[in-house]
Amino acid sequence: MADHRFETLLYEIRDRRAYLTLNRPERLNAITLEMAREIRIAVEMANDDPRVHVIVAQGAGRAFSSGYDLKKYAEAAESFQPELWDPIRDFQMMKRNTDDFFTLWRSLKPTVAKVHGYAVGGGSDIALSCDLVVMADDARIGYMPSRVWGCPTTAMWVYRLGAERAKRMLLTGDTIDGRRAEAWGLVVESVPAAELDASVEALVERMAGVPINQLVMQKLMINQALDNMGLQSTQTLATLFDGVARHSPEGRWFQSFAEVHGFDAAVRWRDSGRWIPDGGGAIPSASEIEGEGVE
Question: Is the pTM of this model over 0.90?
């Protein structure tokens, strides 16, 4: 594993830290199945390496991660929505992705997410799977697919925010900036973008001086509290609901919209707050979309 060659990540060790960098900057580090698998591999490498005390997850280019690379899936007839849906096969695929992301949480060694630009959709799942999240003030985090076509499979919104604010985020699909994320307790710190690197380095430098056995014991003890609250069963339900959301009448309407007008137009319709027809319905024409100011 030490010689693994990553396709979607950069992996570097220095000063008792492993840096795991999502590396698809041309797609704002949009997530592929390969990226999820490589996150697991990188975390396992860091845990097996006695030189590493702390793991830093970050993104190359202009964002942490813009979420799943759904453009190629949503615009295709065969995607996460085959004509004949197999719920168990769907669950196996998404559960594996969730478990891959959650190696950051299950990692014996502490993990810190450094968020700039965007951590949205599945990108928020990755960030919130880390033990600590530091955001730039102007960065945005949220789960817009909660409006249609998704459910956050890691379920970390409720465990970090509590029920009411988790509902505030997931019943609207809104995003919030780093300042509000810190004020709400979603992330540990928000700093000006120019200070993000230095702030994360100061934090992990403090942690990296602690013996590995101490770091592991403290983390296991704290994580056990969330396990006692039913974290695993909540994730199972969320992962099942994610598949249902993509195969509901409204979910199929969303994909049909993307097939006709492109995924970007479908996302703009969803995120604009426009009504998503109950039970699906007819796909709007190009003139109707333009009239609503979506294109």
Answer: yes
